[in-house]
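User: Hello! I'm new to structural biology and keep hearing that structure can be predicted from sequence alone. Could you demonstrate with Putative gluconeogenesis factor? Please show me the input and the output so I can see what each looks like.

Assistant: Of course. The first part below is the input, the amino acid sequence of Putative gluconeogenesis factor. The second part is the output, the predicted structure written as tokens.
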Amino acid sequence: MWKRSEGLFRRFPALRWLYPGMRVKRYALVAALGVLLLALGLAPLLPALPLWPWALGLLGLLLLVGGIRAMNRSLLSALTEPEEVPERVYVRRRLERGPKVVAFGGGTGLSRMLRGLKEHTTGTTAIVAVTDDGGSTGRLRLTFGLPAVGDLVDCLAALSDHPALAQLLAHRFDRGEMQGHTFGNLFLVTLYQVAGDFAEAILEANAILNLRGQVLPATPEAVRLKARFQDGEEVEGEVAIRKRGGRIREVFLVPEPREVMPEALEAIRKADLLVLGPGSLYTSVIPSFLPGPLKEALRKAKAPLVYVVNLMTEPGETDGYTAYDHYKAVAQHLGRRPQVVLVHTAPIPEEVLARYRAEGRFPVAYDPRPFAVDGVRVVEGDFREEGPLAQHDPRKVVEALLDLV
């Protein structure tokens, strides 16, 4: 029945205003009721009239409705195609009823999950690690003394409502002084230069890009990541940490940030679901919640806390780590255990495994017994995206997460 209705809506675009949840039919009904009540109120005051004045009145009403419709189309045509408006309003209204989700992390893992979340809700807040010091981001950090912008740009593109924006922000210049920089990175740096404040620049970017949600830095301060390894050696900087390799005991930020954005704390307080990962354990996921006020807010939050475990280990960072090792590292740094852990348990094709073995990466081993001892719920399943890579499928992951709300 619904499929038949969808076909009818496609054939006659004007009927899309009849979609459920548009907040249009109710107001049209109120207007019609107002006209009816007005007619009933005036009826006793009017003498019996022949049919033709009533016909003229009906014609006048039709002209009024047609004129208002034509005026609205004229106004809307200056902004967009009028035929697209019902669909856009419907999508927005449906997504506004979605859950409030706060997702922590950075890199490819977080931005991919955001693309899945934006199809279900406009209530997503991404809190992004800002400690990357490699590539274009690292050069801009040194030049302007600001937090890392690369992962923020990826997340802004992922939540944007404009289909072409991701390609535009990811465009990388290949010559001159701008060689190696992306347009998105330079866009954020420009906003920072104009605003004179990184937090204000991020809020401006959120407004300009028309996001289905919001993207915020873990801290608007220019901090660096420092790791203490099991042998006691300390190494500063994400690139240096990965190169050094070995078992990490803990990571922390230097200098200790004093500031987080109030919008981030408010989002955590109001969240229906809190999600950590997927992403690099020590250089994306954990740094995204390390600032003291964020950790405190997460400890006090009433919403369920879910950790999404990576599919593969990462050389120099999580070599030999099991799913339980990942979970314990998160719990140790946060000071709160995730109530739910999402783990991919389906087989990965041999040709994909061979490709990753050549890079020193292996599937994250999973044993349900230690989780059971800790009283942690594990959501098992096939969360891999079909194709040549071992990466999470945003649709599968988001569907599993929203089942928890």
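User: So the tokens describe the shape?

Assistant: Right, they're a compact way of writing down the 3D structure. Reading them back into a model, for example: The mean pLDDT is 86.
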